[in-house]
Design the sequence.
């Protein structure tokens, strides 16, 4: 581990410098330089110690996995659907900036171009580690384009971030699922395909239901639905284990509770506030564009690491 090597090297340097300082033949200028170097090392070593502690924290098994993002318009009608669309594009732009790849697995749009519901798969390095704290209710405050009186409306969208589960992570028996095939329909109920290609899979033990109709192939729709189903079951199992391990972490950064209001996007004031860590950025345009979202994500990760270190050091 590079940080451990740097820590040891810094300690050795500090020891050598202290020995130098004790030498009788050290002139005044050299003594001053040595004292400055000692001071610099003494301030750096605690930071290195902290970094090592963070790197040695127990890893989340899912951190290196790809992620499946589920976005749903909440309260607020058309405006909520438009906001859900904004969030979807925000994550897609952020992913692009990270060098990740996005695949829209299913998309249900509103009549005016918003997103009623979407499922997006994000592939890349440590995707789930970066995005897992985005689960929850995102609230927007702004004047809708359809509002003639200029009144500020509040609406919401829900985001769920699931680690993509492989077959090795979750084994689904054929006897545990019911597969229904039907004709896909679009907005207003009109038929999208002329064949019965839409797939609905119900996982009988948990009651989880997944539906896919975006592909014209029944086989492709079933494969996508199974992928989402595996991820939902996997995340449900992870959440249950996490609750058993540490009930007091509920409501903290890492709770992943999708009913919790986690963030507010206030357009009139140009600010974004994450309520879990009381962080406010007055750069809403850059956050929504995906450019400054990383600042919030990094702050959430740092807070989660600090909480877990405090639990370990406090013997919790």
Sequence:
């Amino acid at each position: 581990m590079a940080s451990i090597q740097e820590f040891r090297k810094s300690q050795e340097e500090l020891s050598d410098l202290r020995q130098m300082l004790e030498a009788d033949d050290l002139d005044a200028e050299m003594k001053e330089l040595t004292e400055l170097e000692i001071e610099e090392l003494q301030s750096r070593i605690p930071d290195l110690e902290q970094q090592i502690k963070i790197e040695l924290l127990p890893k989340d098994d899912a951190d290196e996995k790809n992620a499946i993002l589920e976005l749903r318009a909440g309260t607020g009608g058309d405006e909520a659907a438009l906001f859900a669309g904004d969030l979807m594009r925000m994550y897609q732009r952020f992913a692009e900036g990270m060098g990740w790849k996005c695949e829209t697995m299913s998309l249900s749009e509103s009549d005016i171009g918003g997103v009623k519901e979407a499922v997006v798969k994000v592939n890349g390095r440590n995707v789930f580690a970066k995005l897992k704290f985005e689960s929850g209710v995102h609230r927007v405050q702004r004047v809708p384009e359809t509002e003639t009186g200029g009144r500020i409306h509040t609406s919401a969208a829900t985001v769920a971030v699931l680690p993509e589960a492989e077959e090795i992570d979750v084994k689904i028996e054929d006897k545990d699922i019911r597969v229904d095939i039907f004709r896909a329909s679009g907005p207003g109920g009109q038929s999208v395909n002329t064949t019965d290609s839409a797939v609905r899979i119900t996982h009988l033990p948990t009651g989880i239901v997944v539906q896919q109709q975006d592909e014209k192939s029944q086989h492709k729709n079933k494969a996508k639905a199974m992928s989402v189903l595996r991820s939902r079951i996997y995340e449900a199992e992870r959440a249950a284990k996490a609750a058993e391990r540490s009930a007091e972490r509920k409501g903290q950064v890492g709770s992943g509770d999708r009913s919790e209001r986690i963030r507010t996007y206030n357009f009139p004031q140009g600010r974004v506030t994450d309520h879990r860590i009381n962080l406010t950025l007055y750069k809403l345009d850059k956050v929504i564009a995906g450019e400054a979202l990383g600042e919030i994500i990094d702050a959430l990760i740092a807070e989660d690491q600090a909480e877990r270190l405090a639990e370990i050091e406090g013997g919790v």
Observations:
- The chain has seven helices and eleven strands.
- Residues 28-55 form the longest helix (28 residues).
- The longest strand covers residues 153-163.
